[in-house]
Amino acid sequence: MHPFRAAVEKDDLDAVEAMLAENVVFTSPVVFKPYPGKAITAAILRGVTRVFEDFRYVREIGDAEGRDHVLVFEARVGDRKITGADFLHFDEDGLIDDFMVMVRPLSAAQALAEAMGAQFDRIAEEAAGAGGA
């Protein structure tokens, strides 16, 4: 099991944050512009844990060198079942420097966008408190 997956499944958000490079870029499935930086990425991931219900990873896919990894997940957002994938790229220090999420179906992506939008003031405050955003 990949260490990122293990940390997420243990709800160890401090360990998840420790795996992020300072220059990580987070690409959301529902927002056009990527979010650069560790503080905002960690805050978004914390927000996601408040929005997703019954979250679980169902598959791992990795390259031979270990620099690229995909974790396929299932969850619920309200009454919508969502399936998605976390695409992770690791830098030369083994930290995540690119984190892209894709989700389906469209109705679940829309529910996710709405739920995360409701979280965004808190996310921005958390990121600012961490010295970012």
Core attributes:
alpha+beta, single chain, 38% helix, globular, 6 strands, 133 residues, 6-stranded mixed sheet
Mean pLDDT: 93
Order of helices and strands: HHEEHEEEEH
| Molecular shape | globular
Largest sheet: 6 strands, mixed
Radius of gyration: 14 Å
Tell me the number of helical segments per DSSP (H or I, 4 or more residues long): 4
Instruction: Flag low-confidence runs.
Output: none
Helix content, binned percent: 25-40%
Write down how many β-strands occur, each being a DSSP E stretch of 2 or more residues.
6
The main sheet orders its strands as 2-1-6-5-4-3
Distance between the termini: 31 Å
Class of secondary structure makeup: alpha+beta
Beta-strand content: 35-45%
Explain the overall architecture:
A six-stranded mixed β-sheet has the order 2-1-6-5-4-3. It contains four helices and six strands, in the order H-H-E-E-H-E-E-E-E-H. The radius of gyration is 14 Å and the shape is globular. It has 133 residues and is an alpha+beta fold. The mean pLDDT is 93.
Short description:
The chain has 133 residues and is an alpha+beta fold. The chain is built from four helices and six strands.
Write the layout of secondary structure elements.
Elements: H1 3-9, H2 13-18, E1 20-27, E2 35-36, H3 38-51, E3 53-62, E4 68-77, E5 80-90, E6 96-104, H4 106-129
Parallel strand pairs: 1-6
Antiparallel strand pairs: 1-2, 3-4, 4-5, 5-6
